[in-house]
Structures are given as structure tokens and as C-alpha cells.
Amino acid sequence: MNWIFHLCAGLAILLAAPVNVETAEGRATDRSAPDCCKRDADIARWLKNADRLYGQFKAREAVKELQRILQVDAGNFEALIKMARAHIDIGDMIPESDATWKEGKLKEYRVAEDYARRAIKIDPQSTWSHFWLAAALGNAAMVSPVARQLELAGEIRTHIEKAIEQDAQNGLAYHAFGVWHRKVAEIGGTSRVLAPMLYGKSVPTGSLEESVKSLKRAVELNPTFIVSRLELARSHVARAEWEPARALLRSIPDLPIQFSDDSKHKRQAAQLLAEIQDR
């Protein structure tokens, strides 16, 4: 019953999250003006470097730049959420061929969780702090025992919903919500009956209809994101809606490669299209 899903779906998104200027200024009141200006210039440079490195899929190098920021401004909101994002990517990149791959991934996802929770304390109204916490928890659940997966499921959903509540234009949050609903809806009746007895937790309720609705919104908001089209096609397949699934899958080859897993997602789309071509 290993059903928790990968919320980030391999997306290397360069977020334009705002710096918490009020917090930074408040912490700088006891500094001289030249020192303050120099620090702000340094932070801007380190953020730019981190974004450039992350966009090149160099998450570990991006972390080093972000650490510099947090050494001089421990409450820098933008650095905190981008640290969460980077550590999720580092965990994702650990190959399963490694002898301790599960432990390594779980360690990175827990670090990401810590940074996301720190960001929420600074700005609980931010869509991205909630989204990256949901992503960290979802990825940690993937490499955790079933009892832990069930324990995390409700919190994952809560933070996805909060991310959407704070920003109805957050396509990644709608993407995650759509995948969450499909994965949960696909859990069989026997597993649902046994879960409370075996793990002390009931399985949450998901909806394929809600999955399609949320993923359609994700595609509307990010029409060139390959993975959102692929996941929407998978939800249509789960509902035996073959034609819309085929239409989505046929549109994927013409989309540009933007993110680290796009080539893999294109291959998966082609494979799924072949499987349902005559349905």
C-alpha cells in the first residue's frame, strides 16, 4: 500500500518569491547604513547566484549560496523556501542504486521540511512556504513505512489547500492536489478496511473527479508544463476517459524541455499513449 506520491514531480521551478523586506530591515536597525547596504547587496548577489545554479540543476551549489544569506540573515524568507526546494531536489537526485538511498533521501527531505516550517513561521500567508512543506512531507512519505505515510497524508493535504488558499494562481499546488486525489482514490477497498487495524490510521478519501478538476486548473495556469499534462492524462485514464487522455498525450511531444525530468516525462507520455491508443 505504498501510495504517497512525489509532489514536486521533478520540476526545477525558479520561484520569484518576494524577500521578507520588513523582517530584514527590522533585523538591520542596529547596523550602520553602509553595513546595511553592503549586506543587502550581498544578499541580492547570493540570491541571483543561487537561482542561476538551481536553474542549471546544481542544487548543492545553490545551497552554498543560500547558506551565505542565512548566516547574515537567519530569517530571510526567500532563502528559506529556496533551501527547502533545493534539498528536495538533492534528495530526488540520490539514485536508488546507492546502498543507503532511502536514508539519504529521507535526510534531505527532513532538512527541507525544517526550512519550510521556518519559512511558515516568518510568513504563514505565503503560498510557497505551504507548498514546499507539503512537497517535503510528500517526498518523505514516499520512503517511509505505510504507517508514517498515513500519518502524513492529512497534513500534506492541509498544506496544499493552504497554498491554494493563499494564491489561486499557484499551478504547482493544483498539480499536487490533483495527484494527491488520484493516488488516494486508487487505494483499494481491502487496503482501506485493513489500514485502521494494521496501522491505527484510516485512509483518507480522494476523488478522481477532483483530481481531473485540479489538474485541468494546473494545465490552464502552466500550459507548457509537461508533467501537469501527463498527470492529467493519467487521471483521465483512471476514469476511462480515453479521448481527452490521448489528446493531452499527443500534445506533449511539441512542448519544450524546461525542467530536469521533462525528457523522462515525454518518454512516459509516449508509452502511455501507445498503451491506450486503441481504447
Q: Give the integer mean of the pLDDT values.
A: 86
Give the biggest sheet: none
- Structural class assignment: mainly alpha
The global form is globular
Series of H and E elements? HHHHHHHHHHHHH
Oligomer: single chain
Give the % helix. over 70%
Count of individual helical segments = 13
Low-confidence stretches at least 5 residues in length (pLDDT < 50)? 1-5, 9-31
Annotation, overall tally of beta strands: 0
Radius of gyration: 20 Å
Alpha carbon gap, first and last residue: 28 Å
Strand content: under 5%
What does this structure look like?
With 279 residues, the chain is mainly α. The protein contains 13 helices and no strands. The chain has helices at residues 21-27, 33-55, 59-72, 77-92, 101-122, 127-142, 146-166, 171-185, 189-199, 208-221, 226-238, 242-251, 262-276. Helix 11 (226-238) packs antiparallel against helix 12 (242-251). It is globular and about 70 Å long. The protein starts with 20 loop residues before the first helix and ends with a helix. The model is unreliable at 1-5 and 9-31 (pLDDT under 50).
In short:
This protein has 13 helices and no strands. The chain is mainly alpha-helical and 279 residues long.
List keywords for this structure.
disordered N terminus; mainly alpha; 13 helices; globular; 71% helix; 279 residues
